[in-house]
Amino acid sequence: MSSSIFKAYDIRGLVDKELTADFAFATGVAVARFLEQEREPGTVVIGEDMRPSSPTLATAFAAGVTSQGLDVIRIGLASTDMLYFASGKLNLPGAMFTASHNPAAYNGIKLCLSGARPIGKESGLVTIENFVKEGTPMAMRNVGVEKRQEMLEEYVDHLLTLVDVSSIRPLKIVIDAGNGMGGYTAPAVFKRLNAEVIEMYFELDGTFPNHEANPIEPSNLKDLQKAVKKHKADIGLAFDGDADRCFLVDEKGDLVNPSALTALIATRELKRYPASNIIYNLISSRAVKEVVEENGGTAVRSRVGHSYIKKLMAETSAVFGGEHSGHFYFRDFWKADSGMLAALHAIAALGEIEVPLSKLLSPFNRYHSSGEINSTVSDAPAAMNKIEKIYGKKSGVEVDHLDGLTINGDNWWFNLRASNTEPLLRLNVEASTEARMKKVRDDVLNTIRGDLDGLDLLLLIP
Asked: What is the pLDDT of residues 69-85, one digit of tens each?
């Protein structure tokens, strides 16, 4: 077993090389042991995406779980947020077979405790990994029972109790499902809306014949942008492979900054729950914090990653959390993330007024951002130390280490974080003007990549 298959938040690897039916069975046994140790309910709910390997792997995993006396509920095809719904609604631990946005050669397992509580490296995944390595099952007992249960309509019903779309104006919506699970869940949701839907790549196909189901990459949104302009649509939606993330395109065909969507949803949730806490991760725009506070809420800053967001939501009783990566978390959805619920909030907000999406979002687009830029480095900690020595002691500059290295200036900031799995540094920059953002971005990148040796950042800023 390759230890690299156990990631920070899930299990993910190459099918038939790292992720095999035997491995899935062993993981099912290990998960059963872990759940017994945690005194969790004795039934596991299992969902699967459209990848060709998912049914086989899910079946092997289910056999491992039931071999230890626990029962299994198979909900069949599902988006990841639909699996979270099932875990929350039934109050059972869950397993979702998906590799999310990864290419077709991959698959994986996302695990949660009852109530959709996350299982990651800091909350049980290391224990499960060690149990797999040990390969020692619990004492054999009566084999558990496996049954099937449909959850799609209940999932849609629940979403529509959280967002009122009953009186929206007629909208034209283009949806790019990327041949992923959005092609399964979106029809069940949008048939209930006052909307004309133009479907793109709704055919479930885990080989992803049209483009990767990874909308955080702008190249994968080009087809959607063209279609929105061609059809003169009000909004475009793009889902990733397991449909737990959603990205927007406005009526002009322009990409919507995920931080703007975070701010929009925050305003809506603060109307329902005044003076509440809202979580945002540290690479989100400064506009998110400003908007939350302007609307009477308290903005709580978090590390990047769903386990940190969910933990902080529980600790602070936050009603909503947004990540710049397109994950949006809702207290009323068991603190789990749902791309579909985020999309419904955007549609409801747009459908309530007679203005285009770009104008609706303009109050939240206050700054200029670089997006996430990766640099290959041989020694990430050394590179970050170099950056901190150069920029961290400037007058008027603040430094924090909540997640990697963040340098804050008066009208600009940047964050550097090391990848958990690759020799990469991830850079995000934001500034009050595009020119300033580009200068900060280029100076930091040149310093990291060795083209410059510690130029004075402040001298480069007009």
From this structure: 999 999 999 999 999 99
